[in-house]
Amino acid sequence: MKITFMIVFIVIFVIILILLALIYKFIFNINTMKENKENITKDLEKNFLSNITISNITIIDVYDNVEFNPKFKTGFGFACVVKLKNNTILFDTGSDSKILLTNLEIAGIKPEEIGIIVLSHIHGDHTGGLLGFLRRNSNVKVYVPVSFPSSFKKEIKATGAKVVNVTNFMKITEGIYSTGELGTWIKEQSLVINSDKGLIIITGCAHPGIVNIVKKVKELTNKNIYIVMGGFHHPPIEIVKEFKKLDVKKVAPSHCTGDEAINAFKKEYQEDFIKSGVGKIIVIK
Ligand SMILES: [Zn+2]
Ligand SMILES: [Zn+2]
Q1: Residue 264 has pLDDT above 60, yes or no
Q2: How far apart are CA 93 and CA 219, in angstroms?
Q3: Which residue among 34, 51, 142, 161 is buried most deeply as judged by most CB within 10 Å?
Q4: pLDDT single digits (tens) 167-211
């Protein structure tokens, strides 16, 4: 009788323990689920285009092997400045800081007013001017594809500048985004401006393929493309039709696009073709 009572007691005790453990696990799960949900919402805000569009944007091509305004120096590579109401961004740096700084001066832009630098990819014709620029102004955040060599990131940090690693589509500042690191072999990020008139995409060399970049941006943002500018990396001329299919409103190709493709765009786009090159200024009101 006493033994039976003991067994029943132990069984009930074990069952209570199991129940307590299950209840604890259930509550813990709910909490982690809540935390995960909060993190996902935060990521969504950071990694997706917001509804806020911007106006009063001035884009100046300050480094290009394609000539536009003869007052500016040409040099192999690409860089452009995006002037906003309260921010000035430098996208790429060309290959030589002397040419870059000279052209910035001609454009009336002081290196000190630039607070953000975005580097498209590691090639010297886009990054060569960086360290010379940082000697003039290192009070900047430099957005680089996460795959950049750590030695290069160290060199940037040694000047006092901050390095921001970019992996996915992300907000840089109000209305300005990075596509995130795209491509497989040569990783590259492009700049996306959420203007009142639609998206403006600026590419460095477009190594992941210019059409792929435009498609990716459309897919990520679900918005119309107003202008695509920069280097398109010697595309075949059939690309012009693909641009039309993707409903790209205007184009401003330069740097590594090549004369053949530039002429094909000019022919097809007519008044929506923006002749670009060093010294070209595009104003979006
Ligand atoms: Zn390149
Ligand atoms: Zn290039």
Answers
A1: yes
A2: 28
A3: 142
A4: 999 999 999 999 999 999 999 999 999 999 999 999 999 999 999
Q: Which of 27, 47, 67 is the last residue of a domain?
A: 47
Ligand that comes closest to the CA of residue 63: 2
Domain range enclosing 18:
1-47
CA 278 to chain centre: 21
Q: What is the pLDDT of residue 261?
A: 98
Same domain, 98 and 176: yes
**Euclidean distance between CA atoms 221 and 223, whole angstroms:** 5
Ligand nearest to the CA of 255: 2
pTM of the model: 0.85
Q: How far is the CA of 78 from the centre of ligand 2 (A)?
A: 6
The rounded Å distance from CA 80 to ligand 2 centre is 13
Q: Is the dihedral of CA 142, 147, 152, 155 positive or negative?
A: positive
pLDDT band of residue 33 (cuts 50, 70, 90) is low
Residues with CB under 5 A from ligand 1 (ion): 123, 205
